[in-house]
Structures are given as structure tokens and as C-alpha cells.
Amino acid sequence: MIRFAILCLIALLHVPVAVSGQEMDEEYRVVLAPRYKTVLSSEVMTSVKKIAKEMGDGFDKGEILIQLEDTIFRTMQQKAKFLLERAEEQLKAKKQLYEDNVASAFELKDAEAVVATAEFDYAKATKELDSCTIKSPYQGHIEDILINEHEMVQIGQPLIEVVQDRTLLAK
């Protein structure tokens, strides 16, 4: 962060420009800005369990920045997993009954549909559980924290603003 501030100050200084051996007395002002600036938002409605970083702290790519309360989402994923396993067992049994000419094609298709629905529910529950852990998309610094611990957050609510200042752009 200090490196970024020093570069900004240097960029605002008067810099004489030489063109074809002649020095021109023109002043150019340049503002250096981070290449990436991102506001990370909540994908689920829950409370904030822990904020792992403070404003100005650095972080690496993939590092946990915020942990949202995930108890309900973990339970929903376990339930979806068990329902998927049950649906797969029922499908296996229906296939055997269909091969033995005891079950109809409709019953087999119905069991396949139940498995497809259970697979979707499990994938959705896993995505919601994963959304409770807010990780950094790149290496950078915390620019602003927009929430507090134990606060209830809504879907789409901004949580934290991060910048990647390893590469700066002159504007």
C-alpha cells in the first residue's frame, strides 16, 4: 500500500519531457490506479461469522477474507447428499425391476427424474455452502470493509472492496 502511495506522489510531480533532444517545459499529470478493483458481494443471506482481514491488509490469491455463518447451508448440503444417495438406490432398484419386467418404463423414467432433481439440489446446496467463504480473487490489499461481524447480509450486498495494486495503470 505504501508503494502505491509513493508511486502516486511521484506521478503527480512535474516531469520535463525531451523530444528530439529539446527539453519541453510541459507538465503532465498522471494518476496511477490499480489494475483491478473489485467489490465482493454476498451470494447468500446469512450473518457474518468472521472478518479475517482489516482495511489496508494484504492478501494472497484464494485467501479467506470473510467467513459467513454456514451451519444451515452445511446441513442442507448433507440432507441433499442423503436424498441423492437414496434416489440413486431407488433408481438402481427400478432398473433391476424394469429388466425383470416388473416395473414399467414410466416408473424407470420417474426414478431417473428423481435422481436428476436430487443431483441439482445437491449441486445448489454445495454452491450455497461454498458461497459462505469469501476468498480473494487475486493478490492485493483490502481497500474497504463494508460490513461488521455478526451483521446480517442480504444476497447481492457488497461486503468488501479489494484492489490488485501489483500492476498499476496510468490515467
Summed up:
By secondary structure, the protein is α+β, with helices and mostly antiparallel strands. It is 38% helix and 31% strand.
List the helices and strands and how they pair.
Blueprint (H helix, E strand, L loop, with lengths): L1 H10 L5 E3 L2 E3 L7 E10 L4 E6 L6 E2 L4 E5 L2 H29 L5 H26 L2 E3 L4 E6 L6 E2 L4 E13 L1
Antiparallel strand pairs: 1-2, 3-10, 4-6, 4-9, 5-8, 6-7, 8-10
Can you tell me about this structure?
The chain is of the alpha+beta class and 171 residues long. It is built from 3 helices and 10 strands. The chain has helices at 2-11, 71-99, 105-130; strands spanning 17-19, 22-24, 32-41, 46-51, 58-59, 64-68, 133-135, 140-145, 152-153, 158-170. The strands form 3 sheets. A 4-stranded antiparallel β-sheet has the order 3-10-8-5. A 4-stranded antiparallel β-sheet has the order 7-6-4-9, with no helix packed on it. Helix 2 (71-99) runs antiparallel to helix 3. The longest helix is centred in the middle third of the chain and has 29 residues, at 71-99. The two termini are 18 Å apart. Mean pLDDT is 88; it is low at 11-18.
